[in-house]
Amino acid sequence: MYVLAMSTIAEFRIPAADLVLADSFDRLSDLSVQLESSISRTVPSLWIAGAGAEAVTDALAADASVAAAELLIETPDRLLYDVEPSTATRTRFDRLLEADATVLDATGRSGWWQLEMRFPDRNALADTHDRLDEAGTAVEIVRVSQLGGGPTAHPRLTPEQREALVAAFEHGYFEIPRRTSMEELAAELGISHQALSERLRRAYETLVDAELQPAGEHAP
């Protein structure tokens, strides 16, 4: 039997000067960066666009927040680098992850990072925010949502749909790369692959409908 747990998803912005690659953003104004976790597990892998390989390599080499960078893949539109953060940069990331948080997505542009992270609960998010604030890091929270909980978490989801969504999030089904497959998730819940797929599909439809329709106009 799967036990429901509370999870808090937070999206927030942090200046690159308080995290990583501030020098590179200053040097290359059109630079855009996307975290890619599926290539390397030891150091962050970053997709970088907006400049050529030579310019990006030079910028990373001169960036105080970067200890080392290796170009892995070069395509016409973007470049993939393994980037080893400096000691100071690792300390900043440690402050983010001390509450057992998981980085779901991270994008950088125009001197800012926007992150989507999953925390065990709202208290863990609050503790992380306070820790960053005490360290002088400017944090702008964009959105906070909660996944899981009792029947009031979302009144239009059935208990089975809610359980499927919580299990999918907790087991990393929505992460990139996925930490579990549909088959493994179905086995965890004790249902068939088809039943899980149907539950998730109907849950998606319900959530999208609730998000797009004006308040008070949802179908009964």
TrEMBL record:
InterPro entries linked: BAT_GAF/HTH-assoc, HTH_bacterioopsin, RNA_pol_sigma_r3/r4-like, WH-like_DNA-bd_sf
Keyword Transcription carried by entry: yes
SUPFAM superfamilies linked: Sigma3 and sigma4 domains of RNA polymerase sigma factors
Domain spans labelled HTH bat-type: 157-208
Keywords: Transcription, Transcription regulation
Domain Bacterioopsin transcriptional activator GAF and HTH associated: 11-144
Protein name: Putative DNA binding protein
Organism in which the protein naturally occurs: Halovivax ruber (strain DSM 18193 / JCM 13892 / XH-70)
